[in-house]
Amino acid sequence: MSHQILVVDDQVSICQHIQAILESEDYHVGIAHRGDQALIKLSSQSFDILLADMKMPGMDGLELFKRARKIAPNISGIIMTAYGSISSAVESIKQGASDYLEKPFEPESLLLLIEKTLKEREILQELRDLRREVNRKYSFGNLIGKSHRMQAIYDLIKKVSATNARVFITGETGVGKELVAKAIHFNSHRKNKPFVSINCGALAETLLETELFGHEKGAFTGAIRRKEGKFEYARKGTMFLDEVGDISSNMQVKLLRVLQEKKLERVGGNQPIDVDVRLISATNRDIKEKIASGDFRIELFYRLNVVPIHIPPLRERIEDIPLLVKHFIRFFNKNLNKNIRHISVRAMDQLMQHSWPGNVRELENVLERAFVTTDGDTIDAVIFSLDNQGTEMGDSLLNINIDIPFLTARSIVVNRFEKAYLFEALKRYNGNVSKAAKGTGVNPRTFWRKINYYGLDYARLRSKVNSEPHVRVRH
Ligand SMILES: Nc1ncnc2c1ncn2[C@@H]1O[C@H](COP(=O)(O)OP(=O)(O)OP(=O)(O)O)[C@@H](O)[C@H]1O
Ligand SMILES: [Mg+2]
Predict the structure, then answer these.
(1) CATH 3.40.50.720 for domain 4-133
(2) Which of 150, 175, 317, 365 best tests ligand 1's pocket when mutated (most atoms within 8 Å of CB)?
(3) CATH topology of domain 143-312
């Protein structure tokens, strides 16, 4: 395909001259004599290069190039300048033009410049493709993460999406279980049918039953009309049973029957209805423990757990943190109408060393808070809510991840220990720093320095004396 070049000059003879030279080399040439004319052409046709004279009545060449890029962001610009006007040439380059061409010029120099510009475009395009390729590898649907554990999850999602197999997702709160469920649905042939999510833990038994199976008119007081259940509504789609471990034993039996017979009856009805729904379940509790204690039926578990997917906690894949941070910065810039460009080394260190009991959701919350409190364009430090930290991570303190170099890994463990230790001390002394320092034998100045370094929100602890010690992080 031959390349398209838009030539803009108020002198008709110059345009004709350039057109002749370019067409002799098989380039496609468009002509305009004014900036506004050129912009109209640009919005209806695509060009590789804009070759514009600097000095034109009305809009000058540089202004035209700037506006052209709003219409065609990838267009390359070459500005023609009068002999000796080096300052406008420099200005053009500064503004992002690929090059400038001094008038008058030999046909040969014009052609060489065009060739060079096209070559550069090709390289830029390759770079863009490469970047896209890398991004594709490091994300899946709305999931972000480059750790090999996330990559293994992407592979699993791809495989399982091609089937109707039931999937059972486990992982701590905020690790992205619902995102994984959606990624499976939207990658499957069911993607144009409903994705219905139901939080089994949030509904009382009878409510859950009518939610799932629907009811007939008059099935119970208040059932003034027939209601379709979620199973029917999700027909040919996917149903996400969240917190499935919380289902009562009665409901477990009913659900098991539906899965065995692939049919259900509405509450108060006796008409069997076919069920064609793919089931994805999730829990952040230890389901094995529930099975062992007799609170969850093992037959139901086997039915639901055809393909298990375990999402590891964020502290076991801290390589994902920088990428997630970049993702959330982009997200909050757009949604909170801010323009944050950087995050300081200190803030990044804080994020890498935190133990993230609330996982990705907590990271999202911490960054949102940082956005609200940051005035400039750099997040300088972050603050972690004390609601959600301390020693819950317990035995995972010594999590060994050999994907991280030894020295970094060691300092992360030491820092996590220090932070958890200081937190416990602050908790015991109700946020009173000097008492906590004295009680633990830490030099008070060191104690203060570390509080700042780890972003411990000790003041809140002071005001929260006697209130509940642990609250789950939620939106
Ligand atoms: N890998 C990820 N990439 C981007 N965003 C993520 C990722 N994992 C989680 N999130 C975000 O974190 C938040 C929590 O995710 P999600 O609701 O899927 O977690 P969950 O495991 O279902 O938590 P819970 O057990 O509390 O229900 C959401 O806002 C989600 O978009
Ligand atoms: Mg969830």
Answers:
(1) no
(2) 175
(3) Rossmann fold (3.40.50)
